[in-house]
Amino acid sequence: MPPTAPRGGRDAKGHVLSAWVGTSVQRVEDARLLTGRGTFIDDHPPVGNVHHAAIVRSPHAHARIRGYDVAAALRMEGVVAVLTGADVAKACKPFGVGVTAPVHYFPSATDKARFVGEPVAVVVARDRYLAEDAADAVVVDYEPLPAVVDPERALDPDAPVLHEAVGSNLAGHRRLVYGEPDAAFRDAEVVIRERFRFPKYGSTPIETYGLIARWDTLDGVVTVWSNFMGPFIMHPLTARVLGVAENKLRFIVPPDIGGSFGIKSSMYPYIALIALAARKAGVPVKWIEDRREHLIASSSGTDRVAWRELAARKDGTVLGMRYKWYDNVGGYIRSPEPGCSFRPTGNFVGPYRFQHLEVDASVVMTNKSLTGPNRGYACGHLYFETEGMMDRLAEAIGVDPAEVRRKNFIAADALPYRTPTGGLYDSGDYAATFDRALELAGYVELRREQARAREAGRYHGIGLAVAIDPSVSNMGYVATALDPQFRAKPEYLPKSGATESASVKIDPLGRVLTILSSTPQGQGHQTIVAQIVADELGLAPGDITVVDEMDTFTRPWSISSGTYSSRFGSIGTSAVALAARKLKRKLVDYAAHLMEIPAAQLEFRDGAVRHRTGTGPSYSVKELAGRAHWNTESLPDGMEPMLQATAVFGFPEARAVDHEDRVNSSNTYGFIAEVMAVEVDPDTAAIKILKYVTVHDAGVIINPMIAEGQIYGGALHGLGGALYEEMEYDDSGQPLTGTFMDYLVPTASEAPDIDIAHVVSPSPLTTLGSKGLGESSSMTVPAVIANAVSDALKPLGVRITELPMTPSRLWRLIQDARAEPPRGAQT
Amino acid sequence: MSEPVGVRLVVNGVAREGRCPPRKLLVDFIREDLGLTGTHVGCEHGICGACTVLVNGEAARACLMLAVQADGAEITTVEGLARGERLHPLQESFREHHALQCGFCTPGMLLTALDLLRVHPDPSEADVREGLSAVLCRCTGYHGIVKAVLAAAPRLRE
Amino acid sequence: MKPPKFDYHAPRSVEEAVALLARYGGDAKPLAGGQSLVPLLNFRLARPAALIDLNRIASLAGIRQLDGHVALGAMTRQRVVEFSPVVARALPLLTEATRWVGHLPIRSRGTIGGSLAHADPSAEYPAVLTALGGTVVARGEKGERVLAAAELFETYLTTSLRADELITEIRLPVMPAGAGWAFEEFARRHGDFAIVGIAAAVWRNDGRVTARLAAAGAGPVPTRLRAAEEILERDGLGDKAVAAAAARAAELVQPDSDLHASAAYRRNLTRVLTGRALATAIGRAA
User: Which of A475, B130, C55, C250 has its CA 20 to 30 A from that of A529?
Assistant: First the structure.
């Protein structure tokens, strides 16, 4: 695949502009990871006398806890302490939640257990084997209660109520209106309605969650080593739960994290829970989540029931849409939920220009495990529905699905574009990118092949999907969950922002150290940053050492810090480039002083400060570094000694949600256009992917190899949710997918070939013109494959409205369709 | 008989020994008792393959063996692949083809692929995909891994 | 997910192993390849008082071709079966079925006897044993018993083996020269237990057809599809007979619904895969 991103080049004068940005530099991280020398959380014994925790978890989906008997457990070999829900209730406050409903979410169950797998006690012992033995011996007296797992059923008046203080299972509800949707539906010539169901699935990183907590009662410092990856709102939340001052709570993240895809960004109770256990036990405590714990009690995306309505003209122009959904957040609502409903607020309309919409969002609690960000956070749901509706519109008016999309795109010359919901799309050419995807897929020929296949009685289908790919969340979106009246109260503190910092230092020999406060999980930050700094300072990536280990005591950080919501490619790279440029200006000023020439006559070029005319002496980075470090007297008056610069980058458009519920929920917005061709075997309902093309516009690409790696991975996450993965429960709330034999992660045999191309519309908002693309095709594959399968089965009248499309379920749809005549389009 | 037992084995060409209860899993013994933390724990029920090591030259799940069962065996872990500073050709190929992101599944992938290439020295892409299906990776979509193993095959045949 | 405490024994002989099993009176588990038992231990779904590790009993491993049948030691690794030239020649159906068993690193440790004793009805080896009319030799304190598949498998994960009994050997009749075979399987992912799998073999002898068919994953035990075999033996191997046999096969199974598939879908797969397996087997038959 030839990368179409800009490569290293020179300007008209032959000066090096970007030797490294835009090239597939091999990764710095690989050597240690390939030789078994990575340092993951489970490889850590950072302190001595570490003991091990096993968590006792509820076997019931819903049960009142009457009491605990820990005597037998305490007598067992190697056991030092048992912490129960009763201890937890006494020792700490509940976590803050993002809604006004009184949901009390403690680090463990206290009064009731509300899902299978909820922590109810913690055993601390000399090793994990002994801790698990003792966990088996903890007796919890439960009074089982009726459970509810279906979000529609949970809102029935007679449904079991999880939180008595809330009074119902509705954690939150918002009706957001933008423009005049009722008028749009009144004026419509075509109205399409559909109900969709999106499954509960999670990206199940192969490294599970884990941490080590030490509670030093002498100096009052609580230190936590964990593979938590931000947002660091976790830090103040945890400090408040534990009742410790924020400057006494230290979070340290190891150099390597074994994948996350959003899963490690939830506000898990575990840091607080294990810290409490460490205090009670009087020893540092380590807990590594095992796979069963992960599958029944970690985090996943929400399952959603959605109702969509689309109003259009007969020519295919979309006038407006109504969105209604029930998002199932499980037994409690855990921050950053209800982001599932509101994270895409700014891009609710996708790449389309319609102005009128209504969003009726209900956030429902049931006796399932809790939810949170999962790659593509809520955008997979959004586009599965929207792109399904666009296909239905195309069919209703009898035009090609490509036409209907083209008809509705926001025009290239309208960008930057303010969406009716408050998003600011920074750059892009959606029609051109879409056309590139059609061309690459050979769309016209695919349609001909399909016609031939149908003649022969085979079920070929072609799916299309387009999406806005939002990156760098603005923390302010979370407040969309709150009523404007609540937000208008004087005591309400508005929330907004997205910031990142970086420091660049030059040592006395002219070598460079770059220090980040990011927490990558495989995204190759060290490599990317070395490329950027090498370009800025005219060096090679090998000259740059990049440190990306987070420590809240030593690194600059803020509420939004961390590596999530595809942040780094956009905001992290901006901070790094700014810091390097700041340092470059200092080098120029210093050289000007040494050369006794006005700084305006000098420039930094090809690794040295030179006269703009190209004549006269020059000072290389190495020469300047040596002088500056060894002889501070040589610095001009007023210049800070040492060659280092720290820059903090923040997006000015990351504002709080306004009184009409408009919010720029992300900061940069890429675009994805996809084409997939499939064949469905009607006998087994197996789906074979014949072709899959994805074209991305994520602005300037810094390392095409790494960018494409994100796309390959993201696409397979989407395919998992579309075909294989669902966390299923029976009606009593027992999880059915507690092992990797039942929760099916796609393997190499299931991974399709992918044709990837890039279109580059540089972002005007970032230092290098780059945007994020970490979530990428995870948000489009459910839509594109559902559309392709629906298209394949069109002769039978089968329409996909629910995922995952397991062979057994799809076969049932085919059988049912064969039993009745094809249904017409709904108009 | 549930008391600690002695385990002697050869790991990456070096004779090692330890004592552990018979229920201790081989992967925990390798990580905790031998200090070789390159072998990772991902599921503890034999599906994810992150803990795969070579036992007497054949790939096997270290989470599905007891350490005591490895008494007398020769084990190869990811730490045993490179020769000093020189990466094994398969490791080189992984780096060239961006076959890893977070690197957590990588040790199991490498050892599974080595065994696969021994059984199929000249594999088709389908052979490689089938063989690598033994290990789960959630970062790469397997694309780079499949390419890396195919590219390494001729180098390993030499 | 760490195993509970247990006594551990690694006997060197079958006699010793059987005596240990008898001593624990049903509270001990024999440990073969461990690819199913160790996950159960790690989940603490199995809590035996003792594990009797069979891996140090050298006499239990090995493949021998005898008169008219192949004898496989119970501790023969699936990987050894997969690459055995004896098996490839005499039992090509077994070779093909083996490639469907888990993945290579699983087959490195997993054993043929362990798979049969585990009695997962979705597994490949029980279906092959059933299709080919093989037997297992079970050794207990009171001596040996020879059990056919129908006598061994009782229901899901349950055999008729007594607490002191071990499978020591598997005997499979050599497939006649010119026999065609196929193992067809449909799973949601590569390497998973089958939703349904079909073992098929056909051969002609003096114009007379012999057919062998068994289904995995379509009931609590592997199902011999005798009435479908009879259609082929009566009507030959033409397309019509194959379709009729496939349709009959779907009527013979008693599948259940579970997380991965409905009973109706499994019944459908039985028909589809029987047709496909027969087509392949007939294509390979002389």
Answer: A475
CA distance C39 to chain B (A): 5
Q: How many CB pairs under 8 A join B and C?
A: 99
- pLDDT higher than threshold 90 for residue A11: no
Average pLDDT value for chain A: 95
Read off the tokens for A130: 């002994």
C156 touches chain B (CB under 8 A): no
Strands B74-76 and A512-516: unpaired
ipTM over 0.90: yes
> Is residue B2 within 8 Å of C6, Cβ to Cβ?
yes
Between CA A277 and CA C25 the distance in angstroms is 41
Query: Above pLDDT 90, what percent of chain A?
Result: 94
Answer whether A807 touches C (CB < 8 Å).
yes
Tell if the CB–CB gap between A808 and C189 is shorter than 8 Å.
no
The pLDDT value recorded for residue A614 is: 85
Smallest Cα distance from A732 to chain B, Å: 26
Residue A128 sits at the chain C interface (C-beta within 8 Å)? yes
Cα diameter, chain C: 60
How far lies C75's CA from each of B54, C110, C112, C269, in Å? Answer: 19, 8, 7, 32
For residue C113, which of C85, C96, C134 has the smallest C-alpha distance?
C134
Q: How far is CA A683 from CA A459, A804, A806, C215, in A?
A: 11, 18, 14, 17
Q: How far is A129 from chain C (nearest CA, A)?
A: 6
Q: What is the pLDDT of residues A538-584, one digit of tens each?
A: 889 999 999 998 999 999 999 999 999 999 999 999 999 999 999 99
Give one word for A456, left, alpha or beta, with left for phi > 0 and alpha for psi -120 to 50.
alpha
Written as one letter, the residue type at A677 is: A
Contact B102/A at CB under 8 A: yes
User: Measured at the alpha carbon of residue A521, what is the angle toward residues A520 and A523, in degrees to the nearest 5?
Assistant: 70
Q: In chain A, which residues have their Cβ closer than 8 Å to the Cβ of B87?
A: 31, 34-35
Q: Is the pLDDT of residue B87 over 50?
A: yes
What domains lie within chain C, and their CATH numbers? 7-53 (3.30.43.10), 58-173 (3.30.465.10), 180-284 (3.30.390.50)
When scoring A133, A684, A687 by the number of chain C Cβ atoms within 10 A, the one with the most, hence best to mutate, is: A684
Structure tokens at A674: 């996809």
B25 and C8: CB-CB below 8 Å?
no
Beta carbons of B131 and C103 less than 8 Å apart: yes
- Which 40-99 residues of chain B touch chain A by CB within 8 A? 40-45, 47-48, 50, 77-79, 81-82, 87, 91, 94-96, 98
Average pLDDT over residues A410-414: 98
Partners of C142 in the β-ladder:
none
Chains contacting B (3+ CB pairs below 8 angstroms): A, C
Nearest to B122 by CA among B94, B154, B155: B154
Rounded distance between C-alpha atoms, residue C31 and residue C10, angstroms: 9
* A37: exposed, middle or buried (Cβ count in 10 Å: 0-12, 13-18, 19+): middle
Taking 70 as the threshold, does the pLDDT of residue A826 lie above it?
A: no
Q: Please answer whether residues B104 and A40 qualify as being in contact, where contact means their C-beta atoms are separated by less than 8 angstroms.
A: yes
> DSSP code of A301?
P
Amino acid in the structure at residue B21: P
Residues of B in contact with C108 (CB under 8 A): 55, 58-60, 115
E strand intervals along A446-523: 459-473, 499-506, 512-516
Q: Do B61 and C105 touch (CB under 8 A)?
A: yes
